Amino acid sequence: MDIKEFIENFAGEFDETPMDSFTPDTDYKQLDEWNSLTALSIVAMVDEVYNKTITGADLRNHTTIQELADFIETK
Amino acid sequence: MNPFSLEGKTILVTGASSGIGRGIAIACAKMGGTVILNGRNEERLQETLSVLEGKNHQILVGDLSKQEDLQRMADTLPELQGWVNSAGIPKVCPIKHFDRKDVEEIFNVNITSTMLLLSMLVKKKKLKRGASVVLISAVTGAFVGSKGDTSYCATKGAVNGFMKGAALELAPQGIRINSINPGLVPTSILNLANDIAGEEHHTEIMLERYPMKRLGTPEDIGNGAVYLLSDASSWVTGTNLVIDGGYLLN
Q: Chain A within 8 Å of B97 (Cβ-Cβ)?
């Protein structure tokens, strides 16, 4: 998985957070805009773009965007 | 005679294999009704059938989203004194991720099939004077909004609108139609929302938003359905019975 592209897709689900807040090391649950709806949007995006199903627990169990990307790749 | 008795009434429960529909079937049987259980999965319907009090209940397997199944059901069903529709699917999806197929699917299951089955049952005179129809709606979509599942909200609003129109149109024929609008009842539908928000979601919602400090149970909804199906409610049509532990009071 291209991490740059994943970060772009990930960031695309946020409306207020500036693009430079998203790096492979970003602890996404600490972002001000992180809430149940953005979490839901990430689940939907992963399904649409990567054709993989992830759960709310998967999002809670990972910390950085890189970790999440690695996890999705193994699915 | 207990005015809440369902003795002598044959009641179709669509979506009877789990959750609220299962609770409704159990409550109807307890009050003496003869219940016809419908759902897609025979095994799960058998499981519900096995816990019903009384005799002569039966199952009728069928997928309400398929026209041929609806037709077959309408053809084979006996005359009904009551029908409760509890078949419904959730769709958790933010607005910007909508696609036509998903939107059509949830409308098909949650409202279109209800409209078509009611049409067939009335046309074939399976529902006649004295019959009562109960549509399970929700507080979300009908009275309040809910983010993340707006297509579900849209279908529940549609259930409400359809119920009102149908109640008016069918009243001269003596057919009553009402809705039950439940607050949160922990079922598999709810587990989906819980998955996103985390395990503590239930407790948090219960304590903050439900004045009665608990969530609903299928029995709570089943007992409401018994009232609307029974002769106790014979002058009640076109109404929303909200069963929500006081949720809407806030």
A: yes
| Percent over 70 (pLDDT), chain B | 93
Say if the Cβ atoms of B93 and A44 lie within 8 Å.
Answer: yes
CA pair distance B131, B230, nearest whole angstrom? 9
B14: β partners: B38, B85
Domain that holds residue A34: 3-74
B93 near A CB under 8 A: yes
What is the CA angle B235-B119-B36, rounded to 5? 75
Inter-chain residue contact B197 with A36, CB threshold 8 Å: yes
Distance CA B199, CA B180 (A): 27
Q: Which residues of B touch A60 (CB under 8 A)?
A: 198
pTM of the model: 0.89
Angstroms from A38 CA to nearest CA on chain B: 9
Q: How many domains is chain A partitioned into structurally?
A: 1
Structural domain count of chain B: 1
Domain with residue A37: its CATH number is 1.10.1200.10
> What domain range is B142 assigned to?
10-187+218-241
pLDDT of B3-46, one tens digit each? 999 999 999 999 998 899 999 999 999 999 999 999 999 999 99
Q: For residue A66, what are its two tokens?
A: 């890189």
Please report, for the domain that includes residue B25, its CATH number: 3.40.50.720
Q: Is B145 on the interface with A (CB under 8 A)?
A: no
Over the stretch B163-188, which tens digit does the pLDDT of each residue have? 999 999 999 999 999 999 999 888 76
